[in-house]
Amino acid sequence: MEGKNKITRQHFVVTTLFVAWLVTSNILFMVLNIHHTWPAFFICIFFFAYGLNPGRVKEIYAGAVSGLIFGYLLPFYLGAMAPVLGVKAALNVYIALVLFIILILGPVAHTLVNPVSFTYALMCLIHIEEIHEKIVEWGLMTILGGTFIIGGIYGIGAMMKKIESKRSRVSQTE
Q1: Which residues form the domain of 37?
Q2: What are the transmembrane regions (predicted)?
Q3: Which residues, 6 or more positions from 38, have their beta carbon under 8 angstroms from its beta carbon?
Q4: Is residue 73 scored above 50 in pLDDT?
């Protein structure tokens, strides 16, 4: 079995710490009576999906915010277009427009509109009845909650690098 295809002790420890941090974050949000935590955890999900790459954090946040804007505009669009097209047709046209905007602008504005945008817009669609009431909370959870969670992940990573560096120095002196 190749070295990269096995679960190492370090991978196990880091995974355990990440999970503990995510559960602790969720408990803290519950204690603070924050129920709509999906925006913060989606930031985390995309951070993991993009390989914990700090260079993609700006893209994740920009995509999340643009997705929330797309989602926020949805009820206004439906209010104007549903009487003309019917709800289902208007909704499908809106989804097509959002997808088209994301895909057509990808080569020139990938940081601003990207798959994260579409995911957040879809979450707004799922919660369409609450969009206008919850948009500020969702925006704050995206920025503040996401930063809190990713900050903890960075902290764990820094701590593990420090421990690994000490181990490396100790093994070199032996």
Answers
A1: 3-159
A2: 12-31, 37-53, 60-78, 84-105, 140-160
A3: 123, 141
A4: yes
